[in-house]
Design goal:
The structure is a single chain. This protein has 3 domains: about 55 residues; about 170 residues, Rossmann fold (3-Layer(aba) Sandwich), CATH 3.40.50.150; about 130 residues, VC0802-like (2-Layer Sandwich). It is built from 14 helices and 17 strands. It has a 9-stranded mixed beta sheet with strand order 3-2-1-4-5-7-6-8-9, sandwiched between helices. It has an 8-stranded mixed beta sheet with strand order 10-12-13-11-14-17-16-15. Helix 2 crosses helix 4 and helix 6 packs across helix 7. The longest helix is centred in the first third of the chain and has 18 residues. About 35% of the residues are buried. The mean pLDDT is about 90.
């Protein structure tokens, strides 16, 4: 049996200790210095929780969701709150099973949309954290168990769920994402659990090539976009499947789907028009560039840098701005000196570089572009066909 802080301290004692540790963390103390100051049991875990809380507060606000207890690893691999709530709305049903539930963020979201939530996790520490984080929620039950063990499979069979969700474990660092490195084995998981319930939602790494996902069977591949960036990929099986490929902006629920019946291809042009659009990486990964271009009545801009796609249009379209971030084209320049002159002429005081540059050279380059600029008005610079586009962002 795994011992946790909840087996040693009361909630009041935990919070008192975390408060003391957090003050030292905020004042720049290193872990080894904090360990020397306090004779607390499980001090390393308490420090990790304190640091994770501060990190969540400073960097991402309520990104972690409505929970109190999580350490740095939990925070790193946690599901964004907006993603968890979006999934919960889409998977709304009477009884749902959450496999590989971690510290319970997704289960907590399910509890607000489903009548009964049953969560299974192999890591006993995470289960104890889940139970503590959601102890006031009556319609969640947490279980310790390997989801491919016969006893867990039989328990799920007895539950007879309407939907099964699974967010399996991925390797923290991996050169190329692939299906075989996912734990538990998702091919086996689908084979086993599809006999219990056809309606399965499975999260997989969004970097996996889309054609390789067909090995798992017929599903909708839904790419999730957060803040105009690729965030997650969910596969929907059974009656959960709506389309073959889709992209959803989690915040606005703007949705783009593949349209195999639309043979009209968007035009590709070399020179930018009045407006350009920086599109979400989710759209690129899903291969829905043409569909999005049609929706915003834009052309595809030729000559953008590798792994980048820009759209351009004569008239401004804001309807899908959460997936196609719009900018007005102010000027086109040939080099750094021309950019600086144009920025001063147009009254810009600062600039954000949107073209490829070695990270260690970013600030050197930016300082060069901002030389002798004044004011707070901001510009954004893209690179297309060896030209630099000075643009202004639309809110």
């Amino acid at each position: 049996m795994v011992e946790t802080i909840f087996d040693i301290y009361t909630e009041k004692e935990i919070e008192e200790k975390l408060s003391e540790i957090s003050k030292l963390v905020s004042n720049g103390f290193k872990d080894e210095e904090i360990v020397k100051k306090f004779d607390f049991k499980m001090i390393d875990e308490l420090i990790s929780i304190a640091r994770a809380r501060i990190k969540a507060s400073r960097e991402l606000g309520k990104y972690i969701g409505d929970i109190e207890y999580f350490n740095l690893d939990d925070f790193r691999f946690s599901t964004p709150k907006g993603v968890a709530y979006y999934r919960a709305r889409r998977l709304k049903c009477k009884k749902i099973v959450d496999l590989c539930s971690g510290i319970g963020i997704q289960s907590g979201a399910f509890a607000k949309n489903c009548n009964e939530v049953y969560s299974f996790e192999i890591d006993e520490r995470k289960v104890k954290y889940s139970q503590e984080n959601f102890k006031h929620i009556q319609n969640i039950k947490f279980f310790v168990g390997n989801v491919l063990e016969p006893s867990v499979i039989e328990k799920v069979r007895q539950i007879c769920p309407d939907v099964i969700f699974c967010d399996p474990e991925r390797l923290a660092e991996e050169k190329e994402r692939n299906l075989d490195s996912i734990n538990p084995n998702i091919k086996k998981l689908i084979s086993v659990y599809s006999k219990i319930c056809k309606n399965i939602c499975l999260e997989v790494p969004p970097q996996i090539e889309i054609n390789k996902l067909n090995e798992l069977g017929d599903s909708e591949k839904e790419y999730l976009s957060v803040n105009n960036k690729l965030n997650r990929l969910d596969l929907y099986f059974g009656t959960l499947r709506k389309d073959s490929v889709s992209v959803i902006d989690v915040a606005t629920t703007m949705r783009v789907v593949n349209n195999n019946n639309n043979n009209k291809k968007s035009r590709t042009i070399r020179n930018p028009l009045n407006y350009i659009y920086e599109i979400s990486g989710a759209i690129i990964k899903a291969g829905l560039i043409n569909e999005l271009a049609s929706l915003v009545c834009a052309d595809i801009l030729e000559g953008t840098e590798k792994n980048k796609v820009l759209l351009t249009s004569k008239n401004l379209s804001l309807e899908f701005s959460s997936l196609a971030k719009p900018y007005g084209v102010i000027d086109i320049c040939k080099n750094d000196l021309d950019i600086n002159k144009a920025l001063r002429r147009k009254g810009f005081g600062k600039v954000v570089i949107k073209y490829s540059i070695d990270p260690k050279d970013y600030w050197k380059e930016r300082n060069q572009l901002e030389k002798n600029l004044q004011g707070n008005k901001g510009a954004v610079v893209f690179k297309v066909n060896r030209n630099y586009l000075i643009c202004e962002e639309y809110d």
